[in-house]
Amino acid sequence: MSEVLWTAVALVFVLEGLLPFLSPGSWRRVFEQALRLTDGQLRFLGLASLLSGLLLLWLLAS
């Protein structure tokens, strides 16, 4: 179980590093836009991401 968890964490780092590596200008613009969002909008995006990930995990497990 521990190995699977660390593999998942490593994949998160790889995926999060792709955009700034491949297109730093686009990554910077995305962050600038994120800074303009309200707390409620950021929470909604976080919740949507969390639920999407849980749904994907559920689909992969079944």
TrEMBL record:
Keywords: Membrane, Transmembrane, Transmembrane helix. It comes from the Bacteria. InterPro entries: DUF2065. It comes from Caldimonas mangrovi. This is DUF2065 domain-containing protein. It holds the Pfam family DUF2065. The chain crosses the membrane at residues 44-61.
